[in-house]
Design goal:
The chain is of the alpha+beta class and 306 residues long. The chain has 9 helices and 6 strands.
């Protein structure tokens, strides 16, 4: 005889209890799934917002006004005269367009413009071959040399952005010690690191400024470490690559070195001194050849491996 309420369930009651338990488990799983989807969707939205913020920041940086430039480089380059003395100019203000130097054709002055990247091995070859010759032209008093350092090879310095750092360092020297710029420029090539290396460190760049006997050494060191002219380096490089190049037949810089003599681009060998000398004489004309210091013919420097 069965006793009612003894806690034992019939088969139907067990079946219903199992169904109810399964229903509760399914409901709990659906709640967990909803929470998971909500968290995942929130994470995706947050990630997208971060990406948008980063992209917006990059666009604002790249599309924003140009950064203030260094003094004595209002043309985006530094013009050197006899004795490697710099032509002094005010610094470009933020957003201001460069002011090209005027070439005095009537005076018969030879004008050389050079666009260089301090990591570029071909620039190093050109410097090794023609550097002494260009220095002798500066010494004769009838030549101006305008150097435009740009940064196009950052990708070849293992993430250290050496081209930008070296160009910034050159700008620091132009700003605080312009008459030692040429000495520092020459030291950068004399100590040029190889492509696909880390390049020179900031401390090594600062050491080169000491070797160049710069004035305001502490300010230059701080400028190098803080990359004071990093934005200007990017802007001036973009301007060179977009063109046009003032006072020349060059639409834009397509590679370094780009060397322009009296408005004409040199297209000869970077490691042939005689070829460059002949181009200079042709570009300058007979007046320069007759009234200026005779063309020197030094033995070409050894060309570094490219």
């Amino acid at each position: 005889m069965s006793i009612s309420g003894d806690g034992r369930l019939s088969k139907n009651e067990k079946r219903e209890a199992a169904r109810e338990k399964a229903r509760l488990l399914r409901e709990e799983q659906r709640k967990k799934d909803r929470r998971t989807r909500f968290i995942l969707q929130g994470s995706i939205v947050l990630a997208l917002l971060v990406v948008v913020a980063v992209v917006a920041g990059v666009l604002l940086t790249s599309a924003g006004p140009s950064g203030p430039g260094p003094k004595n480089m209002a043309s985006d380059g530094i013009q050197l005269t006899q004795g490697a003395i710099a032509t002094e100019t005010a610094a470009l203000k933020s957003g201001q367009d460069p002011v090209p130097n005027k070439r005095d054709e009537a005076a018969g002055t030879l004008d050389i413009q050079m666009y260089v990247d301090y990591l570029c091995p071909i620039c190093g070859q050109f410097e090794a071959t023609n550097g002494d010759y260009i220095s002798s032209l500066l010494d004769n008093g009838k030549t101006t040399v305008e150097i435009h350092p740009i940064a196009i090879l950052d990708r070849l310095s293992q993430g250290t952005a050496y081209s930008t750092r070296a160009t910034n360092a050159a700008a620091c020297v132009a700003n605080y010690s312009p008459n030692q710029f040429y000495a520092f420029h020459n030291l950068l090539f004399a100590n040029q690191p190889a492509e696909n290396s880390t390049g020179l460190s900031d401390d090594q760049l600062i050491d080169l400024t000491t070797q160049a006997s710069v004035e305001n050494a502490d300010k230059i060191a701080t400028c190098i470490k803080n990359q004071e002219f990093k934005k200007w380096v990017s802007d001036s490089t973009s301007r060179a690559l977009e063109g046009p190049i003032p006072n020349s037949n060059v639409d834009k810089v397509t590679g370094t070195p780009t060397v322009i003599v009296n408005g004409k681009k040199y297209t000869g060998s970077v490691s042939d001194l005689a070829s460059f000398q002949a181009f200079v004489i042709e570009a300058a004309g007979s007046t320069f050849n007759e009234n200026s210091t005779p063309t020197p013919t030094p033995t070409p420097s050894e060309t570094p491996a490219g």
